[in-house]
Automatic annotation (TrEMBL):
Residues 528-613 form the Lumazine-binding domain. Residues 72-97 are annotated as: Disordered. Residues 79-97 have a biased composition (Pro residues). InterPro entries: Lumazine-bd_dom (IPR026017). This is Unannotated protein. The lineage of its organism: unclassified sequences, metagenomes, ecological metagenomes. SUPFAM superfamilies: Metalloproteases ('zincins'), catalytic domain (SSF55486).
């Protein structure tokens, strides 16, 4: 019984093997006879299949069999696999998201009446002249520049025309910004009278010596924690790169001049507005500090004289912002009499000449303890109208930080005789127009001409021409950059969408309403075409200038005084100041393939057709 079962099992296994579609035969050759179509076998490294050829069944040519490289499996006692230390998942860099700024309603900011500072500011007489200087107290004095190894160092002071040693270095401070091979600066302790010229001598005896630049010594007042926090916040704003801004419209072209920003980035034609500039919305607290000098004495009552100027500046910005920003001015009640002649700083009559920063520092050193500058967002140091052009013929905007008790001054202006020159030569309101122009820089706007030598935009705004009785309202692009025009008001249109002409009706830029004020067309990622309707207003006098549709381009790759704002003239325009450049009904111009035609002009609007080929 057992034997018969074994035979039966062998038969079953053999039957399974034979029924397999793959059989193995010896010496199979291509073309040789086979018995069943579809059978296959392997021979000499090839797989042969039985196929029908005519009426016969034969083996095909065969296919080479590629054998996998098999590694034998060896059974071993497994070694425990250590648990790997998880690799931290890197935190992805967040993608900036658009910061949607809610633009305040029109007419939301109203200026307070011009105020008078509550007390008189008097500068003490120079104690060195009256021999009343208090005895100096001992204080730590650090070298203020350079990077050195630890060699020999001596603090010196100037006495007459000679330099004398005061004290040897008592220690060395490591400076983070210095190279690791020479990372130190010396310090010592000494009693020095304020105003004394000092310098450091760093040397290797008998080998070499180096002298720092001399500077006037003044006791450094410790900075409060609040002031340090304010500076840190300002540092962050000042250094915020352009890349953090995410446009919410194709017309918000990005600034191409200063992608990396700092305190010395003060102006921009492109987005975003420089973060440390005067805010675009709300009430701006501003202070006027009237100054006179030993050689130029002010004769007017400062509050009476400067109030109309302050009101003019406020009216200008409140008007062009459609009531979204206002200036609350305070004026010191008397001239602050400085104890030096203005000629000391060599500012003279050439733009860029003299030590303006040193002049501002002298003012702050003398007044900081009596004026709470940190309360104000803009500060103006203004000289008397008696100032001659030869002594101080120019005065620039303030756009870099100056430390004061409790904070910083970073916006405002320093007045010179140029503030009064044009008023004395027939330009109405030239004093406040000068101050409004410099305040425009404090808002972040460029001078919109070429090198103060030739017009590129022409007399179409305070930043291109402030000494005029004609048109001074600032253009639509600059208002858009400040956020004073909403997206619905600028008619942002792509060039590609103009294959079929589009029609727009543009309301006069000067009118304070919610209507469309411009059409803006990006010509590239760095250049925009703007069309705006210009009509007479409380600020714009069109006596010489002709009303119409102003068409111009703004180039984000061209910086201060580079002529990046360019007016496109109407046919037949010849005025060097572009007074006749605005398009009138029936006029047409083409710029980079975009054609703009004025089809209808009314008292307060222009209807235009725009197409692109």
């Amino acid at each position: 019984m057992i034997k018969r079962r074994v035979v039966a099992l062998l038969f079953i296994v053999s039957s399974i093997a034979i029924s397999s579609s793959e059989l193995s035969f010896a010496a199979v050759k291509a073309g040789g006879a086979c018995t069943k179509a579809g059978q296959s076998t392997t021979s000499s490294g090839k797989k042969f299949t039985c196929i029908k050829s005519g009426k016969k069944l034969v083996w095909d040519k065969g296919q080479v069999i590629i054998k996998p490289d098999v590694t034998p499996i060896v059974q071993t006692t497994p070694t425990p696999t250590p648990t790997p230390t998880p690799t931290p998942t890197p935190t992805p860099t967040p993608t900036p998201t658009p910061q949607l700024i809610v633009i305040p309603a029109r007419n939301s900011a109203t200026a307070a009446p011009v105020a008078t500072y509550p007390r008189t500011i008097a500068i003490a007489a120079n104690c060195s002249v009256t021999n009343s200087c208090p005895a100096p107290t001992s204080a730590r004095i650090d070298l203020w520049e350079g990077c050195h190894a630890k060699v020999e160092a001596t603090l010196q002071k100037q006495v007459g025309s000679n330099w004398i040693d005061v004290a040897q270095a008592t220690g060395w401070s490591a400076i983070k910004s210095c190279d690791s091979t020479t990372p130190f600066r010396p310090f010592t302790t000494a009693a020095i009278t304020n105003g004394t010229l000092i310098r450091w001598r760093v040397y290797a005896p008998g080998a070499w010596e180096w002298f720092s630049k001399p500077k006037e010594y003044s006791v450094e007042v410790p900075v409060s924690a609040a002031a340090l926090a304010a500076r840190a916040a300002l540092d962050k704003l000042a250094s915020e790169p352009v890349s953090t801004f995410v446009p919410t419209s194709p017309c918000q072209l990005i600034d191409q001049i200063t992608p990396r920003r700092s305190y010395y980035t003060d102006l921009s034609a492109g987005f975003p507005k420089v973060r440390t500039r005067i805010k675009s919305y709300g009430n701006v607290k501003a202070l006027i500090v009237p100054l006179d000098f030993t050689d130029i004495v002010g004769k007017d009552n400062p509050v009476t004289y400067f109030t109309p100027i302050a009101e003019g500046v406020n009216t200008y910005f409140n008007t062009i912002s459609y009531g979204r920003v206002a200036f609350d001015f305070t004026i010191l009640p008397n001239y602050v009499h400085m104890d030096f002649p203005i000629s000391k700083y060599g500012i003279a009559n050439t733009v860029g000449a003299g030590d303006v920063a040193g002049y501002r520092k002298a003012i702050l050193d003398a007044t900081n303890s009596q004026i709470n500058y940190a309360e104000y967002e803009a500060v103006y140091f203004l000289v008397p109208k008696e100032m001659p052009m030869a002594l101080m013929g120019w005065g620039p905007a303030i756009t870099a930080p100056y430390q004061v008790d409790g904070g910083y001054i970073i916006n405002g202006a320093t007045g010179g005789a140029d503030m009064y020159f044009n008023e004395q030569h027939g330009i109405k309101g030239a004093t406040w127009k000068w101050m409004a122009h410099e305040t425009g820089h404090a808002f972040g706007w460029y001078d919109e001409d070429y090198q103060h030598q030739s017009a590129s935009l022409g007399n179409w705004g305070l930043m291109s021409q402030s000494w005029t009785n004609d048109v001074i309202e600032q253009n639509a692009w600059d208002r858009y950059l400040q956020g004073w025009l909403e997206e619905s008001q600028v008619g942002c249109t792509s060039k590609s969408s103009l294959a079929t002409a589009k029609v727009f009706t543009i309301n006069a830029l000067s009118l304070n309403n919610g209507e469309q004020k411009a059409v803006m067309i990006p010509l590239s990622n760095s250049k925009i075409l703007v069309a705006e309707s210009r009509r007479a207003s409380t600020l714009d006098n069109f006596g010489r200038t002709k009303e119409g549709l102003l068409v111009y381009t703004v180039d984000m790759t061209i910086g201060q005084l580079g002529g990046g704002y360019v007016t496109i003239r109407r046919p037949g325009s010849t005025s060097p100041e572009f007074l006749d450049a605005a398009l009138r009904q029936g006029d047409s111009v083409t710029i980079d393939g975009v054609t703009i035609t004025v089809t209808t002009s009314t008292t307060n609007s222009d209807t235009i057709s725009i197409s692109s080929r």
